[in-house]
Amino acid sequence: MAKKSVNEKLQKKIFLDKKSSWHDLKKDQVFKFADSYKKFLKESKTERLCIENVVKVLKKNDFKDINTITNVKEGDKIYKNVRGKALLAAIIGKNPSKWQLIGSHVDSPRLDLKPHPVYEDSGFGLIKTHYYGGVKKYHWVNTPLALHGVAFTKEGKKVTIAIGDKDDEPKFIIPDLLPHLARNQMERKANKIIEGEELNILVGSIPVDDDKIKEQVKFTVLKYLHKEYGLIEEDFAIAELELVPVTNPMDIGFDSSLIAAYGQDDKVCVYASLMALLETKEPKNTSVAFFADKEEIGSVGDTGAASFVLQNFAHDYAQLTKLKITVSNLFENSNAVSADVTAGMNPNYKDVHDPSNASYLGRGVSVEKYGGGGGKYSTQDAHSEYMQYIREILDKNKIAWQTGELGKIDLGGGGTIAMFLSRYGMNCLDAGPSLLGMHSPCEVTSKADIYSSYLFYKAFFKE
Q: Which CATH number fits domain 110-245: 3.10.129.10, 3.30.1330.40, 2.30.250.10, 2.60.40.3080?
């Protein structure tokens, strides 16, 4: 073997080694973690279902509802459920005056029902929808859908609805136009191929056998809902009902190295950070996991990261721990990670990326200094000191990581909850797996990146 030159040795030292993280991971551990993640994801398609499952896991691991206790001590585990759609959980550290916080979001793009959704046309019963979050609307046609959510009867009874995910249950669908008659449709721009008002769901076709009823199929649809759930048409204006893809998480590739599933943005980070929290023992600083809602529409509302829900929890925390500093000082002392996904290099659409500044599936957790779009709008731009702090954690724990940008500068971009966490004065950056097909009904992740993200979150909590 030829002896390496001085320059070759120097190159090895100063060049960034971009390689697959699979070389250094134990595949049996990665696949085992991925299998448990797929089970969680299958049962957590909506934000409400996700929070329900998080609560179950926390209770099983001895976390106490903050509303049932009056004080805490080092090592205690607590959580606060915010309207069943957001949640904060914490393990009290030796130093309660500093948080290691990881925030993720439980909502994903979907179709919501309009306030007056049920109508009849051409012999069909249909339901009108309003899409939620950034979607390519044409993804949602000819896709089997399940209906989930809650409603209230006129008498005030809460009703939970879940139809379509079980094999023996009916599904719902938006029928697309056949190509034989789609000449005009195909001339539309991509964002107009399917209009928002064309996202109407087939829900029935059998008319009631009664000539005195004018809308006979609509009648049978509403009759079914009244019989099964006690609902009347007016109740839809009160309800929160969502349509999500029926498809369950599945392995992709001959080597089963990838996962395709709906809702991985951002439940992959929810699960990875939840598992990391459960495995955190005797943390130096208090470990906090924040599972927020409404990120896909700007983190608005009383369960979104832009609200004061985190600040409210901090005041509760200060009272329980008898904190000797102000909440504002607590925030300024703390470190945070916005656990969210990013765009991975797509081999079919490489032109939207700067290849040297893109994340690649299989190369580990992607740590991003900033997100946003254009001139770094709608983002948090982490300080160099904090980036170094994070790099030291990654390197010390031998965790595969990479960094990049969401895409070429002027093509678009996207924000996360990082900008809302950082406004409290805490350090913050984004870190999570990269995805293909983000915001589609079937997103793709690498099992290696999921596991690397989990390892990073666990190491971050430990710090």
A: 2.30.250.10
